[in-house]
Amino acid sequence: MGNILPIPEFFDPGKLNQVWRVPYEERARQAKTWALQHGLQPASPEGTKTWLMLVDVQNTFCVPGFELYVAGRSGTGAVDDNRRLCEFIYHNLGMITQITATMDTHQAMQIFHAIFLVDENGGYPAPYTNVSAEDVHAGKWRFNPALAGHFGISAEEGQARLQHYVNKLEEAEKYSLTIWPYHAMLGGIGHALVSSVEEALFFHSIARLSPPHFEIKGDRSFTEHYSVIGPEVEKGPQGETLGEHNDKFVEMLKDVDRLVIAGQAKSHCVAWTIADLLGDLREEDPALAQKIYLLEDCTSPVVVPGADFTEQADAAFARFAEVGMHLVKSTDDFLAD
């Protein structure tokens, strides 16, 4: 316990860009043997507790050719990130006590998908279209009235929610409403964890008798949900609930010694999750920020045609460091007891 462990022979860094079936029975046998060989004990409330949070490490963001592959400026961002992430998990198997994986979870009829909006001719916006409050006010884009019955509302109410939503985004100085390609679709292969990362989580769960915790986010129809902690907009124009703030993470942070965060994308779901957590810490105990470690080499920003969010991502991480969070690399020796 506490030592840097070798990487199991079955780990193949050349498969990070592929989707494949994890051989659970074989890995379970190997994990049991690995625990005995290296003296790994079941994770317990005693001793130093290290919590690893993986933000949206899913095929849809991490495998080339999938819908929202996070390439970063290098072109291989998420693949390289996940190789380092898997190596970090295996090397620190005896020190990581619990793992949470957030799962971006969508269906077609959501406010950030093309089907939700139409122009004056009934056409849908193209992927990566940014929709401003002025665009909606001027009628360039409007709520698709054909969806009103699906939501049990009138077309007018749908339009009011859309206008309210884009207004609130601008008032809060958040990213404008972006029409994303259909992604992280519930029931689809893009929704699943990257196979190599899932394998590492499964191996850890057997070796340390510590099952991973999965946190669903992003399944609300009238708001984006970059952060696992809260939606972009919580209330609609009539006070109706669009999404709910989840304050359990700050409570979980109180009970651990370290929280290590990695995942995709640095500029969006990772940054927004950390920012929301920081907001909770300011109300609860700002000193808790010093428990948080950000794996800078296991996360990449969104870089797509016409939009490069690298500078925004780096600026966000700089702000997090200013309040006491630690910017580290997966190879740094920061988990030593």
Structure characterization notes:
The chain is of the alpha/beta class and 337 residues long. It has two domains: 13-106 and 186-328, Isochorismatase-like (Rossmann fold); 114-178, no CATH class. The chain has helices at residues 24-38, 59-62, 77-91, 133-137, 148-151, 155-171, 195-208, 248-254, 266-284, 310-322, and strands at 50-55, 98-104, 117-118, 130-131, 142-143, 177-178, 213-217, 258-263, 292-295, 303-304, 307-308, 326-328. A six-stranded parallel β-sheet has the order 7-2-1-8-9-12. A hairpin with a 2-residue loop joins β10 and β11. The protein is globular.
Radius of gyration: 21 Å
The CATH topology of the largest domain corresponds to Rossmann fold
**Mean of residue pLDDT values:** 95
Summed up, the domain count is: 2
CATH architecture of the largest domain: 3-Layer(aba) Sandwich
User: What are the low-pLDDT stretches, counting only 5+ consecutive residues below 50?
Assistant: none
**What's the CATH class of the largest domain, please?**
Alpha Beta
Distance between the termini: 10 Å
Strand order of the main beta sheet, please?
Answer: 7-2-1-8-9-12
What would you call the shape? globular
Helix content: 25-40%
| Estimated share of beta-strand residues | 5-15%
Give me the count of strands: 12
Largest sheet: 6 strands, parallel
Instruction: State the fourth-level CATH superfamily of the largest domain.
Output: Isochorismatase-like
What is the succession of H and E elements? HEHHEEEHEHHEHEHEHEEEHE
Short summary of the structure?
With 337 residues, this protein is of the alpha/beta class.
